[in-house]
Write a structure and sequence with these properties.
By secondary structure, the chain is mainly alpha-helical. It is 49% helix and 11% strand. Bound molecules: zinc ion. Zinc ion (ZN) binds next to loops.
Length: 127
């Protein structure tokens, strides 16, 4: 698979290392480890399951992630829903995206990739 990936990247003249800053995935993992414990209070009990699509109240465990975060599959419509209290979504979204940690991380990554993206995709998109 690596050979195919390398050929594709070479054929399309894409430098994959430039698309993500150094230690990008470590940064994602560190951020996740920092943010997940802060939102544990949004995890619903299994008995409180409600499908986000059809509002069905019976679901089966689809995926167990970390620290109690899970996905459930609705027994009626088969939609996959997280076990997160979505009624608190506004404050959740603000707490994830409206903070200095996220803003700094986003700005740093955008800045690090700007010159490469401009060179690689700018002309194509302009045309
Ligand atoms: Zn459903």
């Amino acid at each position: 698979m690596k050979i195919i990936d390398d050929l594709c990247l070479k054929f399309f003249d894409i430098d994959a290392r430039r698309l993500r800053p150094k230690n990008f995935y470590k940064g994602v993992e560190d951020y996740r480890n920092k943010i997940l414990p802060k939102h544990r209070h949004l995890i619903k009990k299994q008995d409180d399951y409600t499908c986000t699509l059809c509002k069905g109240v019976k679901g089966s465990l689809f995926l167990e992630w970390v620290e109690g975060y899970q996905l459930y599959k609705c027994n009626l419509c088969e939609a996959i829903s997280p076990n997160i209290d979505m009624s608190a979504k506004q404050s959740y979204i603000e707490s994830v995206y409206e903070n200095d940690d996220y803003r700094k991380k986003f700005m740093r990554e955008t800045h690090d990739q700007f010159a490469y993206r401009k060179k690689q995709y700018g002309v194509e998109r302009y045309q």
